[in-house]
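Example 437, ligand zinc ion.
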Amino acid sequence: MNADFVISDIEYVVCCDGSNTILEKGAVAIKGSKIVWVGSSIDIKDTFAPGVSIISLPGHILMPGLVNSHTHVPMSIFRGLADDMILQKWLNEVIFPAEAKLINRESVYAGALLSIAEMLLGGTTTFCDGYFYEEEVARAAADAGMRAVVGQGVLDYPTPDNPEPERWMKRISDFIEGFPSSEIVRPAVFCHAPYTCSPDTIRKAHEFCVKNDLIFQIHLAETIQEIREVEKRYGLTPGRYLNDLGVLGEKTVCIHGVWLERKEIQLIAEQHAKLVHCPESNMKLASGVADLPMWLQHRVVCGLGTDGPASNNNLDMFGEMRMAALLHKGIRQDPTVCSAIEVLRMATLGGAKVLGLSDIAGSIEVGKSADLIALDVTVSHATPLYDPVSHIVYSAKASDVRHVWVAGRQVVRNGELTTVDLSNVLETIKKLFASKN
Ligand SMILES: [Zn+2]
């Protein structure tokens, strides 16, 4: 068999495939951008021609790269700008004025690259974004070699990149038409929320997505204020309202779902729409806690997201997994809910399904893209190692990630980025921050 390189001698290969396969002393072979073979290290000699390039990684777990299903990467430039505030006050008094002052093509690119650096170093290989100037987010992802679904923001308010909100359709049409062809970066639409977009905007934006085979993202049922506002305006809870508009479909990714009722969760499952859980952001903004055990009970296809770095304040998917696995046990007083494997699946194959990428990413399987991460398990907090899934969710840290590949290309080697000059990124951000004061 032919391969460009084989990663071998791996302590555990955690595949996150349909049967949750775990291989001890496993190996994975890569040709071009794809995984071409998954097996045991002892079979390498009989399978590949002598001289095949071998990357030997004893003392590591190899797993699919993590999928951050919801974020706003350019907002890293607002990380820690204001915390511990009521959401509306935080938005109106801090974030919106800061966006009006600081958001432009240059700052979006710089902020996106900063976030991408953090995510790649922490083992995330795919992210789904929603913001303004998303062309720049796409450029940053392509430059860094990170897989991304980038959603151009739509609101019925003037935004930094669309001062005339009634021209939103032209804005997204131009965005899609001018989108560079890429193996790893795809365009999408991000309709902000039911309270910032009119029914007409939501319906037409969804139609546009269905017609152009794009993911349609929308924040949904995030806060109790949103529930009251939507009920007041349309006489329906937000989930029922979207269902009435006919926009709960296969392409629809609903984010947060904190206040969804059982019936709304059922509707989302029946219509094959998707949900994204962002527990840390929901807690930090005191929005509430989504009923993830109920989502899982109704078999909703769901992923895990950090949300933007201004409301988290990091993009650490290991932290997010741990939070998701612990939070609901405490709330329900039931240690059996949101098991480690369920949460790991949300952060891998579940996220890939949410983003329409399950034929490409989210698991280690022959034919899929080689989006892989290797975690060092020779560290104290990985010893002893009875169960790699338990370790990944309850104990591993983003800083344990030593190597990362996206589509077969190594983007992190020995804990260092190969595609991004991190010191340059940090310097640019410091200058932007200095210009604010
Ligand atoms: Zn968000």
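Summary: The pocket of zinc ion is lined by residues 70, 72, 219, 255, 307-308 (CB under 6 Å).
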